[in-house]
Amino acid sequence: MVQVLSEHYQIDHFNDTFALGHYARVLDGLQLQNRLSVAFKVLRNEHLSPDGDIRWEYRAFINEADLLTRLGNSPQVVKLYDCGYLASFQEAPSDGEFVSFATDVRQFGAVIADYAEKGWRPYLALQNLPRAHNLLYLMKPNRPDVRWRLPTEEGLALAFQFGQMLKLAHSAGVVYLDHKLEHVYWDGAVLRVIDFNSSRLLEGFSANEHAQYLRMDVHNLCVGILYPIFTGLSPQKTSLRPMPSGLSEVESRYQDITALDFGVEPSLSPALQALLQRGAAKQLESADQFLDGLAEVCALHGWDLPKQHTTPNNRAARDHMREGLKKLRGGQDQIREARDLFRDAAIMDGITSDLEDELRRLVKAANEMLTHRVIP
Ligand SMILES: Nc1ncnc2c1ncn2[C@@H]1O[C@H](COP(=O)(O)OP(=O)(O)O)[C@@H](O)[C@H]1O
Ligand SMILES: [Mg+2]
Binning pLDDT at 50, 70 and 90, where does residue 252 land? Predict the structure, then answer.
């Protein structure tokens, strides 16, 4: 049933400006009926074709909605709330006619030809994740001489949750493939992953090809996510920046990287380095193999897991470390808040230059502290 977009969604600002995607523009939005905050992901106009044939980028929306539904029981996978097509040609659509299929992905796909012919664009309404938790946004340095890395304890927790997500995806016949920091959200405890439109359902592949895809998925995790979070560098050894993301780039992006250089982080756990090297060398065949190797590394860091136990001393030291990391995160948040208060005050009308100069000095000093922060 055709409805009016502005009666169902309030569409706000673009939220993708720090890491533009190839397929879509993404806006903050509000689903009006249940006051739900959404990320509103809509096909870029440039992928509409004038003769009405349906480009891969258009189909990719159906692929993504389908995979998100198949993986809906993974806590790490971003939630899909709604999908459909809209008539507006505005880069930031806010009104006009639209049709919604809620989470009926089969129907969404069944009518693709009708809406492509009308020149309507597909959209997805997704769980809206806070930009301040996006790992590229957090880790991309603002100065060339700066680099941040996650504390090992947090990086292991992230790796563990990513491994579990891949395990579940692989058992559903899905490979993620598009591993890069701009697709990963981390709040210090819980991982969430977005953008499944370059991911694949493994159908019609030989056993050999199937096995290669699983290996590639673990490889991409080690190279594209874990290397950057533990070193603050991209796997190409440059400083962190958004990665290209067309169809051909996704599967070739990390293909040639079969060894990792940990020279900048010599104190990183040798066991962890060795595990990531095995992944990079495509020697890890499955998410399970990765998780088994990771459990051994975790035990060395004071973790207790079903298959791996640590010692009481390690356990106690880890407890202290976790408590300390929590305090560090809280402390950094407070420094940011203080900086923002100084900054807001410095631009208030009618204040003396004596006050303004002092406020600016404080902003600068707080920013210096944040540049040397421990946690990204
Ligand atoms: N669920 C979401 N919550 C918050 N921001 C999002 C969400 N999905 C996408 N974004 C933002 O939009 C950008 C592009 O989205 P993405 O899904 O990667 O599009 P594409 O398929 O075009 O690569 C992301 O890098 C992120 O900044
Ligand atoms: Mg993307």
Answer: confident
98, 87 contact by CB (below 8 A): yes
- Sort residue 255 into left (φ over 0), alpha (ψ -120 to 50) or beta: alpha
Claim to verify: residue 215 and residue 338 sit in the same structural domain: no
pLDDT the model gives residue 53:
87
Ion ligand 2: residues, Cβ under 5 Å:
21, 195, 245
198 lines ligand 1 (CB under 6 A): no
Sequence-separated contacts (24+) of 10-16 with Cβ below 8 Å: 11/40, 11/92, 11/93, 11/94, 13/92, 14/92, 15/39, 15/128, 15/131
pLDDT band at 41 (very low <50, low <70, confident <90, very high): very high
Domain boundary among 257, 286, 310: 310
Domain that includes residue 231, residue range: 132-310
pLDDT band at 39; cut points 50, 70, 90 = very high
Is 376 among the domain residues?
no
